[in-house]
Predict the 3D structure of the following.
Amino acid sequence: MSSIKVLFLLFALMISFTSYAKNNFSVLFVNPSLEGEPFWGKVQKITQEAAAQLDINIDVIYGDGNRHIQLAELKKYLDYRASPDYVILMLYPGGAEQTLTMLNNYGIKFITLEQTITGLEKEEIGIPKERFEHWLGEVFFDNYQAGYDLAKSLHQSVLAGGHKGQVNGLAINGHYGSESDKRNQGAADYFKQHDINLQQTVHASWSKEQAYSKTKRLFKRYPQTHIIWSASDLMAMGAQTAVRQLVKNDAGKVAIGGFDWLSDSLALIDKGSLSASVGGHFMMGGWALVSIFDFHNGVKYWQENSAITFNLSAITRENVDEYLWISSSPDWSKVNYKSLSILDTTIKSYDFSPDQLRQKKN
């Protein structure tokens, strides 16, 4: 190949990647929980890996699971550090208006994760770009559908086990709030549609210990229980421990499942001790970052839309082998975040799905 052809090829490659030349910007990721907490720690790691692939500078601060602390930490960062170009965060009920006002006053564009604000507070803050011009949008999943899908997976597990006749269920909800209530409503509707007897619903505040103690009492009251639906994997594991102690050798006949795709829950599904986990939403920070990358480089999605929504996926005993790679020290660089970008394409919307994490075994 002549030197002229080589130079032409290099020039063509440079032109084709001009869109990736505006990456020199910064993002602050606000982890709403404690440092090292399993679920949000995974969200953070994935967001940081996406930033590395997209050549974005990223900082992290922690909200320590408290709206007052999160607001104080965010204010301290913005007051004493160089202002980031963008912020990704989850809003805490009771602190949404203060947080949005502060970010908007600083002129920082931001994306919120999950839909955590409801009722009067939701009416006060409105929708993205309505009252707060720098609020680009929300990235969230359908909690109702997720709750419905978990109930369906647990029911299918019971039927696959050969059960005939009336199916009885219990539901362990998180706390009294929009996220857990929407999940629970999805489950309740599935149970009603399929004539499953929902014997009782309790709240366990997302606590494994509370779920354990409440399941022990519930199971003694309802020994003919076939399904225990839980609003989180931690609570599902608490319920599973209680059932194992009470039922001994037949514990596996009770279909138990939760949310979050925690490593321990996937291992228990692989062993047959749990039946299902619905999740994949730990990808949402990475997906938000991809959309920011596109926006920064001229994609008009956030000018024309106020949300990116996606459905979660169910891991069961039938497909757990395809997801086991994420259960223990996963290498999140295996996900090609650039391939999820719609920059330099004719695509107008995002196709974000946890199914992208499936890895077929040969």
In short: Residues 114 and 140 are 4 Å apart (CA to CA). Confidence is low (pLDDT under 50) at residues 5-21. The chain has two domains: 13-141+281-313+332-357, 144-279. The radius of gyration is 23 Å.
